[in-house]
Structures are given as structure tokens and as C-alpha cells.
Amino acid sequence: xxxxxxxxADNSQTLDWHPRYEVVIGLEVHTHLKLNTKMFCSCAVIYGxxxxxxxxxxxxxLPGALPVLNRSAVEYAVRAGLATNHEIQERSVFSRKNYFxxxxxxxxxxxxxxxxxxxxxxxDVDVPLNKTGKAGKKKAQPDGFYRKNIGITRIHxxxxxxxxxxxxxxxxxxxxxxxxxRAGVPLLEIVSEPDMRSPAEAAAYLRHLxxxxxxxxxxxGDMEKGQFRFDANLSLRPKGQQEFGTRTExxxxxxxxxxxxxxxxxxxxxxKLLDAGEKVIQATLQYDVxxxxxNVMRLKENADEYRYFPEPDLLPLIVDPSLIxxxxxxxxxxxxxxxxRFEEAYELSTHDxxxxxxxxxxxxxYEAATRLHGKAKAVANWILRDVLKVLKEKETDIEALSxxxxxxxxxxxxVESSRITAKSAREELFPAMLTEGGKPEALxxxxxxxxxxxxxxxxxxxxxxxxxxxxxxEKYLNGDxxxxxxxxxxxxxxxxxxxxAGAVRETLIRKIKG
Amino acid sequence: xxxLVAPLGSLRQLRAALDSGETSSVELVNRALAxxxxxxxxxxxxxxxxxxxxxxEAEAADTRRARGQVLSPLDGIPxxxxxxxxxKGDLATCASQILAGFKAPYNGTAVQRLLDAGAxxxxxxxxxxxxxxxxxxxxxxxxxxxxxxAQRIPGGSSGGSAAAVSAGIVPVALGSDTGGSIxxxxxxTGVVGLKPxxxxxxxxxxxxxxxxxxxxxxxxxxxxxxxLVLEIIAGHDPHxxxxxxxxxxxxxxxxxxxxxxxxxxxxxxxREYFVEEGIDAEVLSKVKDAVSVLEKAGxxxxxxSLPHTRYAxxxxxxxxxxxxxxxxxxxxxxxxxxxxxxxxxxxEMYKQTRSEGFGKEVKRRIMLGTYVLSAGYxxxxxxxxxxxxxxxxxxxxxxxxxxxxxxxxxxxEVAFKLGEKTxxxxxxxxxxxxxxxxxxxxxxxxxxxxxxxxxxxxGLQILARPLxxxxxxxxxxxxxxxxxxxxxxxxxxxxxxxxx
Lengths: 514, 500
Known about the structure:
The complex is a heterodimer of chains A (514) and B (500). Chain A has 514 residues and is α+β, with helices and mostly antiparallel strands. Helix content of chain A is 37%, strand content 20%. In chain A, the strands form 4 sheets. A 9-stranded mixed β-sheet of chain A has the order 2-6-7-10-1-11-12-13-14. In chain A, strands 5-4-15 form a 3-stranded antiparallel β-sheet, with no helix packed on it. In chain A, strands 3-16 form a two-stranded antiparallel sheet. In chain A, strand 12, helix 3 and strand 13 (283-288) form a beta-alpha-beta unit. The radius of gyration of chain A is 31 Å and the shape is elongated. The two termini of chain A are 58 Å apart. With 500 residues, chain B is of the alpha/beta class. Chain B has one domain: Alpha-Beta Complex (Amidase signature (AS) enzymes). Chain B is 37% helix and 13% strand. Chain B has helices at 11-19, 25-43, 51-66, 109-116, 159-166, 183-189, 223-233, 281-296, 312-327, 346-357, 360-373, 379-400, 425-430, 436-441, 469-482, and strands spanning 46-49, 78-82, 120-125, 172-177, 192-195, 215-220, 266-270, 300-304, 405-409, 445-453, 456-463. An 11-stranded mixed β-sheet of chain B has the order 1-3-2-4-6-5-10-11-9-7-8, sandwiched between helices. Chain B is globular, with a radius of gyration of 21 Å. Classes of the chains: A alpha+beta (514), B alpha/beta (500). The A-B interface holds A 57, 60-69, 96, 98, 100, 102, 105-108, 178, 303, 305, 307-309, 312-315 and B 84-86, 92, 94, 99, 102, 104-106, 108, 203-208, 210-212, 238-242, 322-323, 325-326, 328-330, 332, 334-336, 346, 350, 370, 373-375, 378, 382.
């Protein structure tokens, strides 16, 4: 298949977001890696296990325990770096980030500081354009897209912390407990440049990045489990000013929708301060979704003091150029390239192509079905209308749905050959396929959903037969069911067997009883 | 019958006695325990003993020997461990109150290898808290005394392990050396102490003081005995990322390769170490005598230069304290060890726990290290020290272009008296002047007895290229075949209840 060249980003189209101020947003994303074991020990990564079962001397930070790097994490980091156009560093260094907190067993986090594994990346992000509103209600389809190039400063590898569990005070105690199952879980931190100029751009960047990371298989990206979470830095500056304004940091968000709401709320808050001639104070913030308001977690009057220094328990990380080549070759087609290809090859709108490529599995499903069926448009319509609706209702993804491309194609073909009406295919057969499984045709038959076809053609013949055999009609009305076969036989005779038996039967009964 | 509290002798002697059936492992372990207990009142060498377990293990060793299934040269031999080496189920306190009562839930790699070789751990030896000290006076429990003179310190921080061998309680003990913590107490107590190449012995299960400098090593009476122990504990460990890969170059078998001559060996004497000022004259003359012994045996002596030596102490104390400030952060009262009962709330809990749990010197070093890493000071201290470290490594590389081994005094003086240096941290720090460079450069070093001054042992330090323990041990072994300083032992004046 030919690849459509992506149009160059046109940053001049950036939406004018605020009448007086330019919005400046940078994002830090933390993503859990899809690995079986932790970053520096061989404990399993299991979500939802009983507290502290997945721990060992290393992740409990017992005296004398030492970290050993999970080599698969390195490959994942390289994959993420290449997929986001980074320069992979052949030599990078782990550092200790020192601070005290009970969920941080060693009293320092092993991370990468001044020498991370990936530097200087960027993404071309298609930002949806909503002509009518800004923060208002989202329309089902945007009015278009503009392409924006967003710089990514770096990607580095690090370990997650544990979790504080504040027990219900059933015993009247206010004790806190620690669950260290998550301590040491492998993470990538992806730090963008302050290149986004609106909440919509920020959300588009996050969705795009999330899509890529899931596509290349390095993360499950389950946002509810905290596998993809982000912090946003936001500042405003009067239009035309070069210098950045004072920024605040919105911490720990894990929803694309809420991040837009949170950023809008913070823009409003900062603009109000600036309008009143007041100063924005550097602070760490949290967004309260229910109240749509910003809460200050703590003021940052001084720079954070983490006393980074090179981790002496780990050697500098050397990435062999041959590994980089190997990973590059194995990299799958990325979502934006796939979407562009879909638009062209299957004649889809940008919006529809975007939906069909929203996950790699869905895109693969679509392509498999299209290959079987031959008509891209018909398959796209079914997926966009019916399959996606079910996925949304069931809050699941295509892999978890018991539906094969073969089944979907057969269903479409049944409709196309008028053996079933589109309405009953959609409302009865399709849901039944998802619960019962099996071949759609057999299922249709066993459920008696086969369509009444060509009634106009057979109506006349039936009336003719009924007139010629009035006695038989009378017998049937008096309860002799067997006579129906005789009448059907006459009709079939006259139509030379071309009529659909089901339709004939149904029409006969209706007309006799009518 | 053997006198129950008589000194045990060297590993070689004990192996011969076991092999000939003259003694048993049970007898050796009983003697080690009896002598440890008898000496405790005066010398306070051990922080804990494990008599029952040790006797059972000794019985098992005797059973193996009777069946002809001897595991190694250390099988059935009583040994002692420094209190910062994790031995599963046993206390591991680093002589600190913050780890009072803490029992190791796993075996460190070096300890595991000793156990796999059949060695019988009789007890754990006293140390400066977390390895921070040069005299054993920074133990939170009690100061260990020098077996040669109970008025004097045994050196530190592995003073207990050195004293345990010197006092004839065990033939072998393990210590750890961050800036001289094996070599200096070995010199002060008249035994052999070896700090291997950084990465030669796994640090897994060694409670970290300064991760880029720490290295586990043996104490024994002879270089040959040290070679045997090193063979067992050395080698790559997947649990320690800084442990060296097993290659031809890093191969062990040190003991098999002993017995060579020093004919033609080029011995370098660093000009910066042989200065009249700051070194005890008698110590200096004993070390010079030792050089003459090797020279007479055919070694070629030449002066070399280690020009950045004067910066070594400062560099060491900046880097070691920086690393320590992070390494000791895990002792926070949350998961194990001491937790203050006074405190309410998280911050107060941290403060109280660490104030109560750490001793004065440990707090001093944590604060120093925290300062060194702080924003605005990092470049001036930590980064600068890292650069000087590179220069010190270069010094050794250049020197080893001109010689095979480097000889120096291990310490500038003999063991000092208790309390003599406790008033000044600086003068205590300066006593590491000849040993810290080897840790900064990661090279192996050994200290062996080379005479007496004021009736106290004097240590000769030999340094070699990275991974050149083979040569190091050969030179030390040759020296010991030419001299008998290692056969001189202190006459212990055992305390009440333990009079021999």
C-alpha cells in the first residue's frame, strides 16, 4: 500500500484562545510500561493484588539491597523514543532524586536527570477545530483539523512509588498504611516543550501520544489504573510578549476530558488575576472536577530541592546502536500515518479515519474485514455506526468483543443480498451474534430473522393461486394447516421456484388471514 | 587437651589440623566461642554470637568431612562477620540504634558464598556505626579494644573483625572497606586485610555506606589465607550491577598461583606518601625496612608520583558523605528498625526517629553529604570532587606505567589511644590519608604486618592495578615467606571470668 505523505505542520493555524493573553502549556506524561516485572527487581507487576505481596528486598529498600535494571524497559524506552521522533542517547545515566515520603522506600527515586535516554523529539498533532465554541459543548464531529508540531524535550526512565492507604477509621484510628506493590513499577516520563497554546491542543497532544504509546505496545495505557497520567504547566502572557508568565502546575490528571476542563478553569483563574493587576504565584494545583474549580496544593516559593546525583548502584546505560536499528525496523505503522493511509486508500473522512485508527486492534479489524468484503465504505459504515456503539456501551475494546471480521462481513453480505433487513440485522441479529457467536446465517435462520423478499413479485401469483383454490383456503381457515403446503407448492410452481419460500409462506398466511 | 581459650591460629594451620583429624569443626567452633566470650569483657569485639546455630553447623561440617565431602578450604572453619553484612535470621545492626533488633531477612551474596563453602559464622563483630569512623569509637554499643593494648583502639571501621582475627578468636573474618576500613584496622592489629578491586566482590547484602567506594574483603593472618577466602567470595553477581563480569582477566584461583618470587618486580614508592612530616618516624622506618626486604629479594624499587594525593581526603569525604546521605535515607522508621515513640505526625516521626536512631558522627556525615548535593553547592563540591576523582585514577594509571605495585605505609602511625582523637573529626578523617585513594580509584589494596613500633604493629600497604589481586597477593605472600611479622600475636590479658 502506498503511504500518503503527511502534510507539514502549520503552526500558524494555532487557535486564538484568549482575547488578551497567550496561553502557554507544557505537559509531563507518566506512562506505566507493559512489562511483567518491575524496573529494578524481578517482582511481578500486578494491578489490584493484596497489599505488599509483590515486594522483595529491593523494592522494600531493605538494607543492603541493590537495583538491577530491567533490560526490556530499555527496549520499550527506545521504541517510545523512535515513535516520537527522538534522538536515542547511546549513553544515559540514572540518578537519585532524593526526598522523604512514606511511599518512597529508599528515600530516593531512581530516575534519569541530566542525561536521559531520549532527547529532542516532536509530534505532528491534528487538533480538532470547533468553530462555534471553545469550552462549550463538544460537538460530535469537529469542523476540521489543523496540524500542529509539538516539541518533546525528553523521555526518561524511572520507577513508580508505592501507595499510601488511609484506612477507614473502623477502629477509630487515623493510621496510614503503605502498599508497596506499585513501588518500582517501570515508568516513562515524557516531557513536552511549552508548545501548546490551548487546552484543545493539550488534549489533542495527549490523545495522540496515548494512541502512539498503545500502538507500539509499550503500555496498556489504562488511565483509570494510573497507567497514563499527566501534569500540566500553564502560564499566560499578554499577547506579543516574549517572556513567559509565571506558571502553575496542575498535578495528576488521568482523563482527556478533565484535562481540558482543568486547563480552562486555570486559564480563567489566571486571567482574572492578571486582569486585576495581581500576580500569579507559582504553585502546585489540583482540579476539582465536581466543582469545576482549582485548589492550591502547595505554594512553590523556591525551586524544588531534590539533590540529584548519579546513581552509584547502576552503571551508565549504554544502548547499542544495533538495538536502536532493530527496534526501528520492528516499529509498527503509527496512528497518524495509518489514518492518512486510511483516508486515501479507503476514501474516508479525516474524522472517520481517526475513529477507525483509534486503536491498532480496531484498525487491523477494519482492514481484515475490508479485505474479505471488498467494499471499504460498507465495512466502515458498519463499524462506525454499530460496532463502535457497542464498544462504547460495553466500555470495552474490539479485542474483548467476540466478533471476528468474518462474522461482520457475513452479516453485511446477508443484508446486501436482502436476506435480512438492515433493521433486523442491526437490532436483532448483530446483538445476538455478540452473545451467541457462531455463523450469522445459521443464527439468522434459527432465530427466524430471514427477510421477506420480493413481495411485489409474488403478491399477484399468490392471489391467483388463492382464487383458483378457494376450497383449500377455506380448509386452512378452518384449521387444516397441512393445506398450506399444497398452496405453497402451487405458488412455487407458478414462480418456477424463484420466490423466497419464507416470504411466500408469510405472505400467504397474511393474505388468507387478512 | 587443647586449652579452650588458646588462640586458634591461621586458616592454613586449622585446615591441616582438620585434615589430620587432630581437631574437629565442633572443637574449633567451641574454642572460637569460648575465646570470644572470654575476651568480651575487656575487648568487646563482638556485638552478637550465635553459639547454638554455630555448633549445629560445625557438627554438619564434621559429618561431611567424615564422609569425604569437604566443600572447600573453609568448610567447618569458624569465621566472623562485620555487623553490616546480612546473614539471614541473624541481627544486622551496623552497630547503630536505628537498626537495633533488626534481623536480616536474606543472605548477602558474600555471606551466602561463605555459607555455601561450609564456613561456620560464630558471631558478628563491632564496627563504627554504618562504617563511619576510623577507631571503632563510633559504635553505638561500645568501643572495641586493640588486642595488643586494651588502652588503644583497633582501628575502624572494621575494627571488630580485625580484632577477632588478631586476638586468635577466628582465623578469618569479613569486613568492608570504604576508605580504608579493612586495611587500617588490619595494620593496627597486626593482621592481613585485603580490599579487593571495586566490583570484585558483590555488595548485595552489604549495608551501604558509600556505594561507589564500598567493597567487602577478608581479614586473616596471611596473604595465602586471604587468597583462599577471596576465591570463595569473589565473582560476578547478577544482584549487583556494579559487580564485574567473570572473565579470564577476573579469574580467581589466587591461592594456586602463590609462591612466585619478587625477582624483577618493580616496586613504586609514591613520593607524596614518603614524607617525613606527618608520619611517625618509627612507622616510616619499618615500612622502609619492608621495602629493603623486597629489594634484597630482587625487586626493583623506584620512586613514582601520585600528584593529586593531597586532594584525596577532601575528595573522599565529599563523595562518601554525599552517597551516604542518600543511602541512609531508607532508615526512616516507616518499614523497619527504630521508630520514635514520641512523635506525632509524619514529619515529626522522621525527625525524631532519625535524631534518636543515628549517632553523632553519622548525623554529621548525613548533613555534610546533604549540603554537598544541595542546589548551589553541587558544582563546587560534588561535581568538583568527581573530577578530582578522575585525576586520582589517572595518577594511578600513570604510576602503574612505571611500576608493578605501589608500596606505602597503611597508616601514618600505630593504633592510638581511646579518646585521643574523638575531639576532632578532622584529625580522625586525616588518619585515612594513605588508604582512601585506593577506594576512589577502585584499585585493590592489602595491608600486612611489617614490624612493631612502640610495641604496636605497623602496616605495610601494597596497591596494584585493577583486577591485579593475583600479583598483590603474590607480593604479600613473598614478603611473608621472607619475614615472620605475621607470626607475632598479642598476648591477650583476658578479662574477668575468662582468665587463661
